[in-house]
Task: inverse folding
């Protein structure tokens, strides 16, 4: 199923430019419709992919016709994939027709079962989704009953479809594949059972954890046992957590132990933590690799020993946070949960200087204080909560009265959203009164976005509605680099009062930013379905191509077309295997083989940023062991980007170990943040653009990276003569 890698090489450049331009504009029209009828099957494949990426329901009849009638198996396969990407229930019948006929080619059936899962997940309340769920299970049952002719890809896509569609008895079907001879099938079965929180396969999962030769299979078995809260597996999980040779298994087992909530497990975890911490202190690196596992242990201890004041745990965590320079929210939250009074005392004693250091330490402390709000109510904890609320008000006042021109105070703004969320967690009656005046005067886009989120969760009031409307008008006029505040304010208004939000929604429809218009259109469509809002005028809202992008002229680069014909031509001219990005980090060097044929504009954007030294010196802001390492944020708090957004280029490349994808906060919100997967993540397939790959030999560098490590430099090397290992073929 690797044909998607070389289709572009067999299509005329001018036609590729037409297709990529239509994708960039989110425009499905006669241009693509005619190309889907082209005599060249490669052109039909590529234009079908474009139709799926654009996501317009108007493409469904043409795609369904290709799926049913085209003589080329690759065209039919892509048509099935594209219908799944559109996620419309209108495509259900076409997909069911394929799945109900087992004589269809395996490649077509594989993508059809994948599409069934996506469509069912997006339309869970529709009766047709139940039919899709049933068809998914019947497809897996058919494959399980086949002898040597089993289709590996149909099984793998079917297992992921189960976790998306969640059909009745999907867990029972999935469990049948835990003993499959193919490690990747066992891996995906474990992943699906984890996400279903299934409890019916614990015996098989225990055997898998104890004996499987594949580390990821063992890790997923541990995850599934934790999700099932299988107390009979505690000893086995502890053994894996303490001694498995693979860190992915250990961290998965540590998390699973936390799910079982057996406080007696804490002592051995602390001992393991002390060994790791000793190695951490001896490391030559500023951010030792042991940090990943240590933070997992800290998180689990907080679940095992809540409000216990356990001396060994407090001692270990305090030692860890000092070694880590108080920069990790995991240790702060753990201390706040285990010893809330001790924790609040420690912050109170140094409250005056909390904004004077690294904003990351402030952010971590605020997250710890916010956790106090979740303590179980009793006389003692109520007193701690009351004291923490007063402390948070003091900290808010310290921020508001500080000199904003001093660099420490300016940097502190990165931490302020966590301070706001911490206070809001206490659900105080004066929350709105505190934050409304700040929203009216605040310039920082992310602080305004956070306050909007908080006000959206408050009881409805005229004052809150009015301040949100004013904040929207300010945001739409002044926010040129980030649209987070604009979108958050729209969400808050709509959540509080749909009718009152209507004037703001109509105002948003005139925005140059496609994502702002898109959200407004989504709100209006939702209102059309509400009988209570039948008299709200929506006439004319869905005209004037408001669902398309416009070319950039001046002002903000958000939600507009930034590419020219020269950009499109350059992007589609690159070939897979001919361009690499060489990353030098504090832990060593690794290379990303870029995939321009599968994601031309994404790769082109990445290359532009790299050649502008955009990534040089950035800190890795997110690492989730056995999931992803993520970077590309110039702010370092997970919110940053280049000041523009690029469109998703979803393709058939899969999230294997080492796959490189674009991070998103919603469809078409990519910019500069990217991630590498530590292990297969099939639930990400078809949702995030894959645009590169790190080979296995260099993944050891990625595995060693922890939050806080820096990317020293990125070098783009073009016209490389080697061919990258294909990642669309499951392993």
Result:
């Amino acid at each position: 199923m690797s044909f998607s890698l070389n289709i572009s090489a067999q299509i005329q450049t001018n036609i590729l430019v037409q297709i990529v331009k239509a994708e960039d504009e989110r425009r499905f029209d006669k241009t693509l419709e005619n190309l889907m009828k082209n005599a060249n099957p490669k052109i039909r494949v590529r234009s079908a992919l474009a139709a799926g990426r654009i996501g317009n329901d108007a493409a469904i009849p043409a795609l369904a016709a290709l799926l049913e009638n085209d003589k080329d198996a690759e065209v039919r396969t892509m048509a099935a994939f594209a219908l799944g990407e559109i996620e419309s229930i209108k495509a259900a019948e076409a997909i069911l027709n394929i799945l109900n006929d087992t004589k269809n080619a395996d490649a077509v059936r594989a993508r059809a079962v994948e599409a069934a899962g996506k469509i069912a997940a997006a339309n869970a309340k529709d009766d047709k989704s139940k039919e899709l769920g049933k068809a998914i299970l019947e497809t897996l049952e058919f494959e399980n009953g086949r002898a040597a002719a089993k289709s590996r890809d149909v099984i793998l896509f079917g297992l992921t479809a189960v976790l998306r569609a969640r059909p009745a008895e999907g867990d029972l079907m999935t469990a049948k594949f835990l003993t499959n001879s193919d490690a990747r099938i066992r891996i995906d079965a474990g992943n699906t059972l984890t996400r279903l929180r299934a409890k019916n396969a614990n015996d098989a999962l225990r055997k898998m954890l104890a004996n499987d030769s594949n580390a990821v299979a063992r890790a997923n078995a541990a995850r599934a046992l934790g999700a099932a809260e299988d107390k009979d597996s505690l000893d086995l999980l502890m053994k894996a957590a303490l001694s498995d040779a693979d860190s992915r298994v250990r961290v998965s087992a540590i998390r699973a132990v936390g799910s079982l909530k057996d406080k007696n497990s804490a002592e051995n975890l602390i001992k393991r933590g002390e060994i790791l911490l000793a190695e951490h202190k001896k490391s030559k690196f500023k951010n030792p690799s042991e940090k990943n596992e240590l933070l997992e242990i800290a998180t689990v201890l907080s679940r095992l020993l809540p409000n216990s004041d356990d001396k060994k745990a407090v001692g270990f965590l305090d030692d860890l946070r000092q070694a880590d320079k108080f920069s990790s929210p995991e240790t702060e939250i753990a201390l706040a949960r285990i010893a809330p009074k001790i924790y609040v005392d420690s912050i109170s004693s140094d409250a005056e200087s909390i904004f004077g250091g690294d904003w990351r330490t402030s952010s971590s402390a605020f997250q710890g204080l916010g956790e106090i709000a979740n303590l179980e109510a009793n006389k003692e904890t109520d007193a701690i909560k009351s004291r923490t609320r007063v402390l948070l008000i003091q900290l808010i006042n310290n921020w508001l009265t500080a000199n904003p021109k001093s660099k420490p105070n300016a940097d502190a703004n990165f931490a302020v959203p966590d301070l706001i969320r911490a206070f809001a967690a206490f659900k105080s009656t004066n929350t709105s009164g505190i934050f409304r005046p700040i929203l009216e005067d605040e310039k920082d886009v992310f602080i305004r976005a956070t306050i909007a989120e908080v006000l959206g969760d408050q009881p409805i009031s005229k004052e809150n509605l009015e301040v949100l409307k004013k904040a929207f008008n300010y945001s739409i006029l002044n926010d040129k680099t980030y649209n987070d505040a604009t979108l958050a304010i729209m969400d808050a208004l709509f959540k509080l009062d749909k009718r009152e939000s209507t004037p703001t929604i109509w105002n948003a429809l005139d925005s140059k930013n496609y994502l702002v218009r898109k959200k407004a259109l989504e709100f209006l469509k939702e209102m059309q379905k509400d009988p209570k809002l039948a008299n709200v005028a929506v006439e004319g809202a869905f005209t004037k191509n408001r669902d398309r992008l416009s070319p950039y002229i001046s002002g903000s680069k958000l939600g507009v077309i930034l590419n020219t014909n020269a950009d499109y031509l350059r992007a589609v001219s690159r070939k897979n295997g001919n361009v690499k990005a060489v990353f030098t980090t504090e832990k060593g060097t690794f290379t990303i083989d870029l995939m321009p044929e599968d994601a031309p504009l994404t790769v082109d954007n990445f290359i532009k940023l790299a050649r502008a030294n955009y990534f040089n010196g950035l800190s890795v802001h997110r690492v989730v062991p056995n999931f992803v390492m993520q970077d590309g944020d110039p702010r370092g708090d997970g919110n940053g980007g280049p000041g523009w957004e690029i469109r998703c280029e979803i393709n058939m490349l899969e999230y294997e170990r080492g796959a490189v994808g674009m991070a998103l906060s919603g469809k078409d919100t990519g910019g500069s943040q990217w991630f590498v997967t530590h292990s297969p993540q099939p639930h990400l397939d078809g949702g995030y653009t894959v645009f590169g790959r790190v080979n296995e030999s260099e993944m050891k560098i990625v595995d060693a990276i922890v939050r806080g490590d820096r990317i020293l430099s990125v070098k783009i090397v073009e016209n490389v003569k080697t061919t990258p290992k294909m990642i669309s073929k499951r392993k």
